[in-house]
Amino acid sequence: MAQATTSKEIVILEEESVTLPQGFTAGGLHCGLKRKRLDLGYIVSEVPATAAGVYTTNLFQAAPLLVTQESIAKENKIQAVIVNSANANACTGEQGMKDAYEIQHNFAGELGVEDHLVAVTSTGVIGELLPMEKVNNGIKQILNKENEDVNNFLQAILTTDLAVKQIGVQMNIDGKTVSIGGAAKGSGMIHPNMATMLGFVTTDANIAHEDLSAALKEITNETFNMITVDGDTSTNDMVVVMANGLAGNNQLTKDHPDWELFKSGLKIVSEALAKKIARDGEGATKLIEVKVDGAFSKDAARAVGKSIISSNLVKTAIYGTDANWGRIITAIGYSGVPIEPYAIKVSLGSIPVFENGLPTPFNEEEAKQYLEQENVQILVELNQGDDCATAWGCDLTYDYVKINASYRT
């Protein structure tokens, strides 16, 4: 395993995950929520970890989400996360809350820790009660040694995902190797401002809660909140960070000389997971990246990027390899951002298609060939300032409709 050797170097480890940092284990098993695939997973830290989270903006917040927020708020620490897929435990009323608390209590009992040190997470179909006998039987067995495998965890959290999503980084802080690991699920019902995604980030850094929480919120606005698949925002989803301090560095705060280094590592993990979610959109064949430069503010750049990446007409044009720049211009125009129409330049990769309020002559066949690539970039230059932002999404295909037309059946 590569390790950071200098104080400013960040080593990216594509095949690592939430067990890269010291003191974390993870695993999973099949408890019967799905027909065959793994459906109950966990992450456990050796010691209580400083915790922070960001949560869906949907007003119908699912029971496990409420339980987790309450747990973290108690003393800003958790020691474990338990996750089930196939059932969201959302819109399940008082019984859904009781079930979420029961899962928390039973897993805490298996670990021998207080209930509030366990975060509870669910994802899947909305409006159905959990089959608690199956879940509780799974909890009784989940810590068995044969289930302890991070790959089991990565599989257990998936719903319609086609691929697992993981990443790790390492850096040197105060002469100590500090690691950050991440895993996520998400494929459909993805839209900016937290959508149907679960993100789990672990680190062995010693870090103050207030600064960790602030960094997570800032980085989420630049990463997880800048992706879309289909424009829907779910009831369940969140990103949780656990920092157990076992690396032994001096406590990280905003005043620490390596604060920006740690934030860079956290952003690398978050951005990588966000892009993997966007690429794995239901039925997707392409990852689309929208880069907006020259905005008068960060918020303006983000709004324009989100507007373009959320446009179904843009997404279908990319799928059909149609260089229909008019759809991009339209999305910029209804973004809500004041713009100067005659100042804007739009390019598909290195191919300019619109500038100074007029179409730019381009080779249609060259543009089509570019759009046939797996990774497509749309560049927008607003020429109104110095701020920029990047958004990610995927194309919209026939398969997306097929997958979601029969999600419950």
Automatic annotation (TrEMBL):
What pathway or pathways are given for this protein in its record?
Amino-acid biosynthesis; L-arginine biosynthesis; L-ornithine and N-acetyl-L-glutamate from L-glutamate and N(2)-acetyl-L-ornithine (cyclic): step 1/1; Amino-acid biosynthesis; L-arginine biosynthesis; N(2)-acetyl-L-ornithine from L-glutamate: step 1/4
Give the site residues for Involved in the stabilization of negative charge on the oxyanion by the formation of the oxyanion hole: T123, G124
Q: What is the catalytic activity of this protein?
A: L-glutamate + acetyl-CoA = N-acetyl-L-glutamate + CoA + H(+); N(2)-acetyl-L-ornithine + L-glutamate = N-acetyl-L-glutamate + L-ornithine
Q: Which residues form the active site?
A: T196 (nucleophile)
One GO cellular component from the entry? Answer: cytoplasm
Q: Which locations, inside or outside the cell, does it occupy?
A: Cytoplasm
Q: Where is this site: Cleavage?
A: A195, T196
Alphabetically sorted, this entry's keywords are: Acyltransferase, Amino-acid biosynthesis, Arginine biosynthesis, Autocatalytic cleavage, Cytoplasm, Multifunctional enzyme, Transferase
Function text? Catalyzes two activities which are involved in the cyclic version of arginine biosynthesis: the synthesis of N-acetylglutamate from glutamate and acetyl-CoA as the acetyl donor, and of ornithine by transacetylation between N(2)-acetylornithine and glutamate.
Name of the molecule in the record: Arginine biosynthesis bifunctional protein ArgJ
User: Origin organism of this chain?
Assistant: Neobacillus mesonae
